[in-house]
Amino acid sequence: MQDDSYYYEPAQGHGLAHDPFNAIVGPRPIGWISSRSADGILNLAPYSFFNAFNYIPPIIGFASIGHKDSLSNIEQTGEFVWNLATLPLAEAMNQSCAAVAPEVDEFALAGLTPAPSNLIEVPRVAESPVSFECRKTQIIQLQSAAGDAVNTWLVLGEVIGVHIDRRLLVDGVYQTAAAEPILRGGGPADYFRIEPDALFRMQRPG
């Protein structure tokens, strides 16, 4: 009987045109992170590996593959903001991921407006309809199964302030699709969007 499953062991290589891992684990929400250095230099960068990890208190996290500016800034100040990446802001978000020197302000590079946060010194993206003000809870360097250090750091932060465009709240319920969030797929350039007709509901058993 023919095996229709393609099998590979990541340590030996995938043998495909492009690593399928991040296409399989996707699409994923985008960690569009604003931060500020101890010297006051602003930074804005999107991270492909991002998600929410706890409800009460709300904790979100992103993985920095390499010791990048966002990670350095959060180590220095303990603060960051997550900004929702949306379809109207897709090009600006993409501009903010340019590989530039630490002294370059990606807000200016992407033509975006820094808006003051309420509880922390790091600004929000004014054009984004949703932002989370966060304080660092943990920074964890990842390890392989063998215990070897990986050049990736998981940054976790508690959400201490939430900004939501009022148009996205209908009878007190946040309308996910109305915000037009974009999601990261696989490959070098794949993104997805959420539309209202993609919604379906299931109630938990019991």
From TrEMBL:
Q: Which SMART domains match?
A: Flavin_Reduct
User: Which InterPro entries has this protein been placed in?
Assistant: Flavin_Rdtase-like_dom (IPR002563), Split_barrel_FMN-bd (IPR012349)
The residue ranges of the Flavin reductase like domain are 25-176
Where are the coiled-coil regions?
none
In terms of superkingdom, the source organism counts as Bacteria
What's a Gene Ontology MF term here? Answer: FMN binding
The protein's name is Asp/Glu/hydantoin racemase
Q: Which organism is it from?
A: Halopseudomonas oceani
